Amino acid sequence: MATRSQELAVADGEFAFTWSDFRQIAQLVHSEAGIVLAESKVHLVYSRLAKRLRAIGLRNFREYCALVTSADGADERQLMIAAMTTNVTRFFREPHHFEYLRDHIFPSLLGGARRGGRVRVWSAGCSSGEEAYSIGISILELLPEAAGLDVRILASDIDTEMLRRGSEGQYEKRQIEDVPAEMRRKWFVPVIGNKSVFEVSTELHSLVRFRELNLLNQWPMAGRFDIIFCRNVMIYFDDKTQNETWKRFSEVLVPGGLLCIGHSERISAASQPYDLIGQTIYRLRRGAQ
Questions:
Q1: The CATH number of the domain where 61 resides is what?
Q2: What is this structure's pTM?
C-alpha cells in the first residue's frame, strides 16, 4: 500500500505530482525565500509549476524536484520561487500612503534635498515597478528637479523578470489608468509606433534603480533609508520571518524613518521599535537603533 508521501496530491493532473514532491518544493521555497506554502496551496503550486515542466520538457514532478535541488538547478529554483508569488500591483495602490507622504513628509524631506541633502526611499518587493514609479511621481510633483539632486529610489525584488519589466519602464494604457490625468501627461510618453503603450519619462526613470534582492539574504546597501515601502510581501512569510524582517528594516532606517506596509499586515508595537502614525504607516522610534 502506498504511503501518503507516494500518493498523488493532484489526482487528475497532466504530470504526476505526489505529496512528497509537494513537500520538497514547499521546503525549498521556504528555505530559499521564506515563503510558506500550506497544503491548501497544492493546486496552486501544481498549476503554476506545470507550466515550467512543459517549458523545459520534464515528464513529472519527481524529475522537477531533482532538478531544482541539484547544483545545476539554480536558475530554475529562481523561476520556481518567482512562480509562487502573485505580482498584483498598480500605480498608486493604497493611495493613503502617497497622500500622507505628500502632506506630511515630503515637504520637509524634499526641502532638505533642495538644500543639498540626501533622500533615499526603498520599494522592497517592487514587482514590475509601479510602486517605485508612483513614489517617484509623488517626489517629482513637489520637486521637479529631483533627478538632478541626491534623491534616489531603490526598487528591489526576487523576480528578475519583474525587475526587467520595471527597468524597461513601459506600461500599457490600461496599466496607467490609476495615475491622475495631469500626472500621466507629465510623466509618461507614448511609445513611438504603439499608441497603446507608454514609457516613463527620462526624469522619472532616472530616479529609480532596480536591483535583485532576496529579503532573506544579506542586504548590500550601505546607507540608510528615509522611507521603506514593503507592502503585501510579508503575507507570504511565517511569523518568525516577518518579525526578523521588520527588525532588519529598523536597522537600515534613519532615526524617525517611515515604514509603509500592506493593508492586511500589522506590526506589533510590543515587539518591534515602531509606532503606528497612520493607516499602515509606522515610524521608527528615535533611539531605537
A1: 1.10.155.10
A2: 0.89
